[in-house]
Specification:
This protein is α+β, with helices and mostly antiparallel strands.
């Protein structure tokens, strides 16, 4: 690079003094010190140092732990924006530098609506070009930081974006740490593309963090093992093991008291290899293969051996499906694919992470991996996703595991795992506030009037409309929890002295039941849980919402947001009734449809700049568990807002599907939920209105 002239130096100095930007032409004139041989340049590309420093860490709020957890360890299923979650994990000494394997299958950055299986629209990867490159690059920077020094990362992509991704990963992980480009099936029906071949494959980019990475090649059964010659080019003399010296008679050479030969003993006969060649295996292995019936003489009397029953795989994995449709989740990776990745780059007990977890294949396969002897060898895992559909799909999948890859075999109980919400205000700061400041804050959050009063000796804090409000003092009663017994005790004191609704504000972690309210007599006791949501007063930066999909096509939209402004249960009015089936019914239909008619769905938005939405505009989806056990929501159906709109916001299903009770979760586009538990007897001809 040429030296800068004196006038150029003076011009640059003057610009710096006046705070003026330098002309773009100086980009390649000023001699910056750099270790990169090349890099991908584009608009708004941030320095790695700025990404690591400026990304806001969000706390993880434990929602529920599934399974006993006596050793204090549990796998993690996290709902939230993965960028903020990765910053939090980077600050966690139990995670940073300890993740042995990372697998991600992000949207492919095309901006097109497409289906990886080639059958129906799956999602729209709306971020394109430089924006998508930077979206993914930020996450890869954090993934590198939490990866162990002997760890590996696999990223799935396709021809649309793979060449850019390769350049990015060369920058972040180092081109010397590139391992493989692995070809996998995309499947789907061939399309009549104009002027090009049908695209039937994706690929995985496999990188390590350092040269010292753990790797164990995956072995598969060999189809039709062949009989092959046992010699290779080149003449070699081999020292004879003293145990076998008495078997040799002819081709022997003595050197310094040791005996050497070019021959081997096959079926008791001393044989030389063809001219100019040598035997490929030693005498001990020949005897072993003879006992196993894996050596024989061909028609010319020459020994040949059969190939092994297994073979190591290479970088073409088109022999297995790479997508699956078992859980009906768009772009669901197959268990066969993840089995190869996890076996190849991790060991028993290693930590595996998936930041675009989707249907949860990574965690499911971590649970069912077996060693070479067929014993379970599970890995620990962390899965992150910003979609409620993904979270509930993964929860259900983990609770209904099967032992064998491909979701076959006997039921398998998953290791304990904890579901977390990664919200957007710093709940730790909120908890550290003095009680009076905390109380004042949460009352404002839920638009309550701060008017302390007493009923039957119980100190209450405020009113919401005309209804009483109690702020649960979790700081004073640190070991207390809000369970059904707490509600029973409260109702026994207050009884008919209060109205139809009573509100309790409490941290979500202190509440151990799922319902949003419990009904006692004529009163509904509503729980206003304090979630981890962004509150402007607690932070210096502004935030956007994580948006939930309104159709299956939007399920895997890229998200570069940091969450909700706050959590507020939507207002809903529904009519529950039984009706005659419409159209053709399936065999075994009960002859009665259960119908849920949504009359009103409005999100409660509290903001410095209030937003107005029309009725139904913020509805994302309705999820249903037809046989709710009172403990765990295992969703059976999902109804998207776009589909509901076509049906005039009616949900219709065979009444026989309803077990003892069902749970419905109404979700708005901001991720807020309204939960209802219903029994079949609740479906009448009368309209019922529910408030939340």
């Amino acid at each position: 690079m040429e030296r800068l002239s004196q006038s150029e130096i003076e011009f640059i100095t003057q610009c710096l003094k006046e705070g003026k930007p330098l002309p773009d032409s100086y980009r390649y004139v000023i001699p910056f010190e750099t270790k990169k041989e090349y890099e991908l340049t584009y608009a708004d590309k941030e320095r790695e140092e700025d990404i690591l420093a400026d990304t806001f860490a969000v706390p993880l709020q434990p929602v529920k732990t599934f399974g006993s957890n006596s050793d204090g360890l549990a796998n993690k299923l996290i709902f939230g924006d993965n960028l903020q979650v990765l910053k939090t994990l980077m600050n966690d000494p139990e995670v940073k530098g300890k993740v042995r394997l990372i697998y991600i299958d992000p949207p492919f950055g095309t901006g097109d609506i497409y289906d990886a299986r080639g059958e129906a629209p799956a999602y729209s990867a709306k971020l394109q070009g430089a924006k998508f490159i930077e979206f993914l690059r930020k996450r890869l920077v954090f993934l590198r930081e939490i990866l162990a020094d002997n760890g590996s990362i696999y990223v799935r992509t396709d021809y649309h974006f793979g060449h850019y991704l390769k350049a990015i990963m060369d920058e972040i992980f180092g081109k010397n740490n590139f391992r493989n480009e692995i070809i996998v099936n995309k499947s789907g029906r061939p399309t009549e593309a104009i002027g090009q071949y049908h695209s039937s494959t994706d690929f995985l980019l496999f990188y390590s963090k350092t040269q010292n990475c753990y790797f164990k090649n995956f072995e598969i059964p060999r189809a039709n093992p062949k009989w092959r010659a046992m010699h290779l080019p080149g003449i070699r003399w081999t020292k004879i093991d003293k145990r076998y010296l008495h078997l040799y008679r002819n081709d022997i050479v003595e050197r310094n008291g040791e005996f050497y030969t070019r021959a081997r003993i096959f079926f008791g006969k001393e044989m030389l290899p063809p001219e100019g060649r040598h035997w490929a295996i030693n005498q001990e292995n020949i005897f072993k293969l003879e006992k196993e019936g894996k050596i024989k003489l061909n028609e010319k009397g020459n020994p040949i051996s059969v190939e092994s029953d297994t073979q190591k795989i290479h970088d073409n994995w088109t022999d297995i499906p790479a997508y699956s449709q078992y859980w009906d989740y768009p772009t669901e990776n197959s268990e066969q694919l993840l089995e190869r990745v996890i076996v190849g780059s991790s060991n028993l007990g290693d930590l595996v992470l998936d930041a675009f977890a989707g249907s949860g294949t990574t965690g499911a396969v971590c649970e069912k991996i077996k060693d070479k002897d067929g014993h379970l060898a599970p890995r620990r895992w962390i899965m992150i996703d910003c979609g409620k559909l993904a979270i509930y799909t993964m929860q259900k999948r983990l609770l209904k595991l099967r032992e064998e890859i491909g979701n076959r075999g006997k039921p398998l109980k998953a290791k304990p795992f904890t579901l977390y919400n990664a919200g957007l205000y710093d709940y730790q700061k909120l908890k550290q506030l003095p009680w009076e400041e905390y109380r004042d804050f949460v009352l404002k959050l839920f638009q309550c009037r701060d008017e302390p009063h007493r009923i039957a000796g119980v100190e209450l804090d405020a009113y919401l409309g005309a209804d009483d409000v109690l702020v649960f003092n979790y700081q004073k009663y640190k070991d207390a929890v809000l369970d059904r017994g707490f509600i029973d005790d409260l109702h026994s004191i207050l009884g008919d002295r209060i109205g139809l609704r009573f509100f309790i504000i409490a941290p979500a972690a202190s509440v151990i039941f799922l319902e949003d309210y419990i009904e006692k007599g004529n009163t509904r006791y509503f729980l206003l849980r304090i979630p981890y949501s962004i509150i402007d007063e607690l932070h210096r930066k502004g935030f956007t919402h994580i948006k939930q999909p309104v159709s299956e096509m939007n399920v895997n939209d890229t998200v570069d947001a940091v969450g909700f402004d706050f959590i507020q249960i939507p207002d809903i009015e529904c009519e529950y009734y039984l009706d005659k089936p419409k159209g053709q019914v399936s065999l075994g239909h009960s002859g009665r449809d259960a119908v849920i008619k949504i009359k009103k769905f409005e999100s409660n938005i509290i903001s410095k700049k209030p937003l107005h939405y029309e009725n139904m505009e913020t509805l994302s989806m309705v999820m249903v568990d037809y046989d709710y056990d009172g403990k765990v929501f295992n969703f059976d159906d999902v109804f998207y807002a776009e589909d509901l709109k076509k049906q005039d916001y009616g949900i219709r299903f065979d009444s026989n599907k309803v077990g003892g009770q069902m749970m419905l979760i109404y979700i708005d586009i901001f991720g807020n939920e309204k939960r209802e538990v219903k029994k079949l007897r609740d479906f009448t001809k009368l309209q019922e209105t529910f408030y939340g």
